[in-house]
Amino acid sequence: MDFNVKKLASDAGVFFTRAVQFTEEKLGQAEKTELDPHLENLIARADCTKNWTEKILRQTEVLLQPNPSARIEEFIYDKLEKKLPSKTTNAELLGQYMLDAAAEFGPGTPYGSTLITVGEYQKRLGGAEREFLQSSAAAFLTPLRNFLEGDWRTISKERRLLENRRLDLDICKARLKKAKQAEAKAAAEHELRVAQTEFDRQAEVTRLLLEGIGSTHLNHQRCLQDFAEAQATYYTQCHHYMQDLQRELNKPSSSGATVPSSSSSQRLSTLVMDHTQLPVTGSRKAKVLYDYEAHDTSELSLLADELITVHTVPGMDPDWLVGERGNEKGKVPVTYLELLS
Predict the structure, then answer these.
(1) Which of 206, 223, 208 has its CA nearest to residue 53?
(2) Which pLDDT band, with edges at 50, 70 and 90, does 80 fall under?
(3) DSSP secondary structure letters along 91-154
(4) pTM
C-alpha cells in the first residue's frame, strides 16, 4: 500500500510539472522543442487521414442505412460482438405485400397476375440489396472501422507519449539553465541526457507508426475499389431485373388484358432479326458477364464468360447489340457484356 501511495504521489508530481511547462509554453514564457519537419508532416498527414476516414465512414453508413435507429442497432450489435439478425429489406416486404394482395384479389385476374409478377421482382431487388449491404459492410466499412479503432488508437497513444517525453525534455532543459552550482548542473545534465534519449526513442517509434499510414492508404484504396465493384454489381443486377420485369409486363396475355405499349411494339417489330440485310457498324469482341436466356427468337441466349462478336445497326435501341456466335445471331443486352478493345 505504501508503494502505491508513493507512486501515486510521484505520478501526480510529474503531471503537475508537465502541466506547468505546457502552460508556460502556451503563454510564451518557456521554450519548446520543435519536432523535425518530416515528423510534423507525417503527423499532419495522419490527422488528415483520420478525419476524412471518419467522415467517409459516417456518410457511407448513412448511404447504406438511412434509418438512424437501424444504424444505432447495428452499432450496439457490433460493440457486443454479436451477429445482427438478418432483416427483410423494404423491397422484399413490398414484394410480399403484393403477393399477399394477389392472393386476395385472385391470381387469375389481370390485376392479381400483375401483382404477382411485380412482387416477385421486388423480392429479387430486395435480395440483391441485402447482398450489396453485406458485401459493402465486409469489404469497406469494416476495414475503415478497424483502422479507427485499432491502428489509430495505437498511433494516438504513442503520440501522447511523445508529447510527454518532449515536455520532460524541455523541463530538463529549463532546470539546466536555472542550475547554479556545479553539482546541480551535473545532475541536470544527466537528467537532460536521459530525457533526450527517451525523447529520441519515442520519436522514432512514433515516426515508424506514422509512416505506416501509407500502407493504410493502399488498403483503403483496395477497399474502395471493392466497394465500387459491389455497387456496380448491385446496380447491374437491378437493371437486369427491371429489364426482365418490363418484358414480362409487355407480354400480351392470353386474355388480351395486358397490351404492350406502342414503344414496346415498335421495338419488337424493329428488332426482328434479319441482320444480313442491315448495315453493320463497329464489330468487336465482347465477354459475357452473366447467363442470359433469350425471350424470343430475335434474341441470342448467352453463357457467362463466353466470347462473342457484337455490332450495332442503324436505328437500334442503344441498350441492345447484335451478337454472333458461330452461325447463331440475335439481339443481346449491353448490360450483360464487357466490351473488349
Answers:
(1) 223
(2) low
(3) HHHHHHHHHHHHHHH-TTSHHHHHHHHHHHHHHHHHHHHHHHHHHHIIIIIHHHHHIIIIIHHH
(4) 0.65
